[in-house]
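Module 6 notes. Inverse folding takes a fixed backbone as the condition and produces residue identities as the prediction. Think of it as a translation problem where the source language is geometry and the target language is the twenty amino acids. Below is one complete input and output pair. Work through it position by position during the lab.
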């Protein structure tokens, strides 16, 4: 469902002002402290940012995919840690419930996720399984009217702040592939659940990541997502299609910010008696950034519209994630080059973006995994 155009425009304008007036001034502080101010989280909750994609009947804004990616492009004009604060509630932390959850699960959790009362987190990656997600080893065995979870999840975004985890675990030990995996909703205070120490990361300070450990963690059978066991991997893949489009939108927003800052710097920085923007080799770098940015934005909006129309966008989502994550890395590299020495100095913020955007090529499927998905879908189409 989409908002009427006037209401959506007001939302977009509000988000844009919030980014410019509240978030951008805090970028250095969040980067230095590796912590998101509670006041900012409160403002995000009040604006409804934790429930962008959650249906209205459960307290969210119920944005279409196209609307959500347009909002995320605006949010991308600042450090990606800000988006990550509420991003999992709209994507991998809630969409499993939205898509495959029971009505009881939706009523219980979605309003709390939409309001930001709880933060959702997606626990798929493990010490020995990342790109090869189907080989995960965390187990869930039935014991009476409970499941007992054992295993460790690694590099889990927002885990230190999470109140609810969507956990992928193997329910059929005899099925070593994707068909033996089920998805569960596990609350933070479940007995046997503990968290590792937050990791120190290359970038995206303020977006905490840690391990989630299950040691005979007991959860009720009602925690299973879907009508039966063995559907967890399918749920995860459905969630990731939309998630990859939203990640792509974040890449676009970050690239727009980097281009804006690079143009402004090139126009005021002088060498050989004139602005460096007058030199054609600098212009060439700016032009390359702008051309790639236009291509990225066009493909993401197109794919979002296809998704809203109910079409299967697995291939398009992978294309967007692959191209946009690689694109923003190239834009960030050129931004450092255009800024020269200033691009390497922390005071200007360009080097922070350079580190921040590197993660886009890794999470929610590496660039290499996206290439495999694209080729697989191409071959399926050709076979038909």
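Target side of the pair, the amino acids:
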């Amino acid at each position: 469902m989409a908002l009427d155009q006037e209401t959506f425009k007001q939302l977009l304008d509000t988000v844009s002002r919030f980014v410019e007036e509240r978030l951008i001034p805090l970028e250095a502080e969040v980067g230095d402290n590796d912590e998101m101010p509670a006041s900012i989280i409160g403002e995000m909750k009040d604006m409804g940012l934790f429930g962008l994609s959650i249906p209205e009947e459960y307290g969210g804004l119920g944005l279409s995919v196209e609307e959500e990616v347009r909002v995320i492009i605006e949010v991308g004009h600042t450090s990606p840690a800000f988006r990550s604060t509420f991003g999992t509630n709209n994507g991998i932390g809630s969409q499993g419930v939205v898509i495959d959850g029971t009505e009881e699960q939706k009523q219980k959790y979605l309003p709390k996720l939409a309001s930001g009362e709880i933060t959702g987190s997606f626990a798929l990656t493990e010490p020995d399984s990342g790109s090869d997600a189907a080989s995960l080893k965390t187990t869930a065995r039935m014991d009476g009217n409970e499941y007992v979870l054992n295993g460790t999840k690694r590099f889990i975004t927002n885990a230190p702040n999470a109140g609810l985890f969507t956990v992928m675990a193997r329910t059929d030990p005899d099925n070593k592939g994707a068909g033996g995996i089920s998805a569960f909703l596990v609350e933070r205070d479940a007995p046997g659940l503990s968290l590792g120490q937050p990791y120190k990361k290359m970038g995206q300070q303020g977006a905490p990541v840690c391990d989630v450990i299950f040691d005979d963690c007991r959860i009720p059978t009602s925690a299973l997502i879907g009508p039966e066991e063995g559907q967890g991997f399918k749920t995860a893949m459905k969630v990731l299609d939309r998630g990859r489009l939203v990640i792509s939108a974040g890449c676009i927003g970050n690239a727009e910010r980097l281009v804006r800052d690079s143009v402004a710097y090139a126009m005021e920085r002088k060498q050989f008696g004139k602005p460096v923007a007058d030199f054609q080799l600098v212009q060439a770098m700016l032009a390359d950034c702008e051309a790639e940015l236009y291509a990225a934005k066009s493909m993401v909006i197109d794919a979002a519209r296809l998704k809203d129309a109910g079409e299967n966008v697995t291939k398009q989502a992978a294309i967007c994630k692959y191209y946009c994550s690689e694109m923003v890395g190239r834009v960030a590299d050129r931004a450092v080059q255009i800024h020269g020495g200033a691009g390497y100095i922390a005071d200007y913020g360009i080097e922070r973006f350079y580190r921040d955007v590197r993660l886009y090529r890794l999470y929610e499927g590496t660039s290499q995994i996206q290439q495999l998905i694209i080729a697989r879908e191409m071959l399926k189409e050709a076979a038909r």
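Reference fact for the lab report: The chain has three domains: 5-115, 120-229, 234-383.
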